[in-house]
Design a protein that fits this description.
Radius of gyration: 25 Å
Number of domains: 2
Strand content: 5-15%
Number of strands: 7
CATH superfamily of the largest domain: Cysteine proteinases
Length: 254
């Protein structure tokens, strides 16, 4: 049994969306989208922001006052616009999500696993949070039976146990990342999947698939013979240039 876990910065912090901070002493209970956005910011640009402050600032920017009476969520469009504005490389996998919603779920699942193997995490939005259970069958949101949307951060998976690894901002009482079976994600329904490029990794072309290749592409390997041939070619070019310069000086001398 092997868990493939995305490499995270040494100072990465899980964010509990309900936790108070100096920026939000009594916060809204609907901050899953901004909590996950702040966590991916930590991955893309380690140390650039204070996660709790960014979580609060994004909520105020996107939803309203960060207070318990504010029950506004955030939208995929707001998150995508901010990712672009913050220069965080990402892939909106809406085409694969559409296939998932139409019953063809393997292409998205395979792409998620391939991305995780290359240390790319994902923002996922599920349609019905009441269907979230961990691998042991424990319900993650004991209070939720209303079918609300919820945002989670996928950071890996098991290659033989059928679960993914998720930082779950509304389940602080569970070991993080939480082991959630893929069958439970299917039961919840997916409405958003966004891959996030880690620090130093550029955004790939729109049509790139991690199931079909490695990103960034590996640099070509040069053999010793090729390297020596290139060095010899450069030396010959330098000698030719020096000879031409010598002739030019001689001609000028006459």
């Amino acid at each position: 049994m092997t868990d493939f876990v995305v490499h995270l910065p040494p100072n990465f912090r899980y964010l509990n969306q309900f936790a108070p901070s100096s920026w939000a002493p009594n916060p809204s209970k609907y901050r899953c989208g901004t909590a996950v956005s702040a966590m991916v910011a930590e991955i893309a640009y380690p140390g650039k922001w204070i996660p709790e402050e960014l979580e609060h600032d994004l909520y105020v920017k996107w939803a309203g006052p960060d207070v318990p009476t504010d029950e506004n969520g955030v939208t995929k469009e707001q998150i995508l616009a901010w990712l672009s504005q913050a220069n965080i490389g990402h892939i909106d996998m809406s085409n694969l999500v559409a296939e998932f919603q139409n019953g063809n779920r393997d292409p998205l699942h395979n792409e998620l696993m391939a991305q995780n193997r290359q240390h790319v995490p994902q923002i996922l939005t599920v349609n019905d949070e009441s269907q979230l259970y961990d691998i042991a069958g424990h319900k993650l949101h004991a209070w939720a039976d209303q079918g609300l949307h919820h945002v989670i951060l996928r950071v890996g998976f098991s290659d033989d146990q059928g679960y993914g690894l998720y930082y779950e901002p509304a389940a602080p009482g569970f070991p993080q990342p939480v082991k959630i079976p893929w069958e439970r994600i299917i039961a919840c329904g997916l409405i958003t999947a966004i891959a996030i490029m880690p620090a130093g990794v550029p955004q790939p072309p729109v049509d790139f698939r991690f199931t079909q290749g490695v990103w960034p592409p590996p640099k070509p390997v040069i053999s010793i013979d090729d390297a020596m041939a290139r060095i010899e070619s450069v030396e010959q070019a330098m000698q030719a240039s020096l000879a031409a310069l010598s002739l030019a000086k001689r001609d000028l001398g006459h």
